[in-house]
Amino acid sequence: MVMTVQSQIYAFLVTIYGGFVLGFMYDIFKVAQRVFKLKKSLINIADIIFWILGTIIMLYFMYLSNYVEVRFYSFLGFAIGALLYYLLLSYFILQGLIAFYHFMVKIFSRIARIIEYPFRVLIGLFYVPYRFIRKVLSLPKKIIEKNLTYFKIFRKKK
Fold first, then answer.
1. What ranges do the domains of the chain cover?
2. C-alpha angle with apex 115: 110 to 120, nearest 5 degrees?
């Protein structure tokens, strides 16, 4: 299929944008690996998933730009886009993603504390009478143990 220069430039710019998207997706995977502290085998599986998704994204952007016609400038566009993303945005995006993770952890921990509070109150309401009843019921046992030690028969052998 014959493409005009304008459509080739459009395809090239779309693949550069696709490189940015791949770079962003890689940063998400990198943060996920840091956050979840994956083992080596799971990192390998995550890499395979990344490349499968990356291939699907590349094919989607190639479909948008030039109906999946494989041209050199398409791969060059992806490489330039990923490189530009890495040089210009990656550091800031990583910091933002890590900050977002910490923010979400704080929100979920506060929500968990709010949900947990009524249960703590209920446990506290039942625990005070429980301690009192346990002390009252253990008094006769202590008295009996204290008095039985005076008899040689009931002494514990050492």
1. 5-88, 115-154
2. 105
